[in-house]
Amino acid sequence: MSLLDSSVLDRIRGQLVLSASPPSITDVALALRDDGVLLDPESLLLEADRLHGEMSGAGLLTALLADPTVTDVLVTAPDRVWVDRGRGIERVDVTFADDLAVRRLAQRLAAACGRRLDDAAPFVDARLSDGTRVHAVLSPLAVSGTCVSLRVPRRRGFDLASLVACRSIPEQLVPWIHAIVRARLAVLITGGTGTGKTTWLSVLLDLVDPRERIVIVEDSAELVPEHPHVVRLEARPANIEGAGAITVRDLVRQALRMRPDRLVVGEVRGAEVVELLAALNTGHEGGYATVHANSAGDVPARLEALGRAAGLDREALHAQVAAGLDLVLHLERAPDGSRRLASLSVAQRSGALVEVVDALVIRDQSIHEGPGLDHLRSRLGAWAPKED
Predict the structure, then answer these.
(1) How far is CA 338 from the centre of its chain?
(2) Which of 131, 153, 175 is the last residue of a domain?
(3) Total domains present in the chain
(4) CB within 8 A of 328, min separation 6: which ones?
(5) Gap between the Cα atoms of 97 and 185, Å rounded
(6) Which of 98, 126, 153 is the last residue in one of the domains?
(7) Alpha-carbon distance values, 307 to 78, 189, 257, 310 (Å)
(8) Same domain, 63 and 51
(9) What is the percentage of the chain residues whose pLDDT exceeds 70?
(10) DSSP string covering 260-310
(11) Peptide bond into 140 cis (omega under 30)
């Protein structure tokens, strides 16, 4: 809690925000002194440090973002701040003075991304220079107050060994994952929000032969695979005048002309599904993408919805999925918040349509065979792990 009256703080903020560059702690301390604030040196320094933290960087959220275990920081109201440390969302003891303080933080983060956030443009989705994903919605659109959602990029690389160690995958399944990459199967990684789709995509890319060229297309760049030959393309939103947008669909088209051995779409959420499926059907083997889906069985319906919005009719989409998609790797979050691999499923024809059939299902670290296992083995060919 501040030792100073809110009117004094507002006055100091108003003075400092007019400076040409972000204020330093010394600038804040001098502004407090010049305003006639009478505090002992230690208290003055503490107040200056607190006010400086509020007016620069991520302010009160800085310590949370620096925590290596934190993957998400969420502000839903001035007195409601939450984090995810891999065990589900938990509330933390951080409180903003009021909604105006949250709004100032959101606007500062948006400005750091080169984006506008005000009453005329009341929401933003952008990325900071360190890779942190920033999403914010101002009140009154956000009824309980300005909402800020920060997705922190992974600070350490995950590999199969670390996924086994954190019980995201049973060790017996590791040979299957290696085989899927070596056999150049086209893989769709699915799951709900926060299930680890991007992490798994990075793990697969780290296993790709270093002699292969990977071209990655993302709406917001997050993937940084440990691979010697990677080209990363990032979509661009429209400017303030509404011009200059470069979509994921635009970039997928360009990626196909860049001689990719592996085409990767960070997340399929729109019309780019047409170009992706076309690529998987025209010799671009071993492509990877992620898509939101509640279960592996829901994937055909999800792709239908995306394809319909892009003008691709149902039969044409199912024909392309049947010919181009090999595997669905589905992820889920356990009740305790942990992320885990739920199943490996294959796309099979069922009449004129396609259905996704489980090949291997994981429950409580045990692997259970599904009706699609023979089909998966046939797709893996010589790479398929030997039966015990």
Answers:
(1) 17
(2) 153
(3) 3
(4) 187, 188, 189, 190, 296, 299, 343, 344, 345, 346, 347, 356
(5) 53
(6) 153
(7) 40, 17, 22, 5
(8) no
(9) 84
(10) -SEEEES---STHHHHHHHHHTTT-TT-EEEEE-SSGGGHHHHHHHHHHHT
(11) yes
Mean of pLDDT values over 93-108: 88
Domain assignment of residue 362, yes or no: yes
pLDDT at 216 over 70: yes
Looking at the domain assignment, is residue 388 inside a domain? no
Mean pLDDT of 177-201: 94
Residue 169 CA to residue 123 CA, distance in Å, equals 37
- Yes or no: say if 380 and 187 are a contact pair by the CB < 8 Å rule: no
Q: Tokens representing 112?
A: 């750091």
Q: Give, as one character, the DSSP assignment of residue 93.
A: S
Most confident of 37-41, 152-156, 164-168: 164-168
Length of the chain as a residue count: 388
SS3 breakdown of the chain: % helix, strand, coil, rounded to 5? 35, 25, 40
pLDDT in tens, 284-322: 899 999 999 999 999 999 999 999 988 889 999 999 999
Quick one: CA torsion of 187, 190, 195, 197, rounded to 10 degrees? 30
Q: Could you give phi then psi for residue 93, rounded to 5 degrees?
A: -90, 70
For the chain, the distance separating the N- and C-terminal CA atoms, rounded to the nearest angstrom, is 64
Sign, CA torsion 65/67/71/73:
negative
CA distances from 296 to 141, 171, 263 (A): 34, 22, 22
d(CA 278, CA 93): 50
- Give the tokens for residue 269: 């959420």
Q: Tens of pLDDT along 25-60? A: 566 667 666 766 656 666 666 666 666 555 556 778
Q: How far apart are CA 349 and CA 160, in angstroms?
A: 31
The mean per-residue pLDDT over the stretch 58-63 comes to 82
For 321, the domain range is 160-383
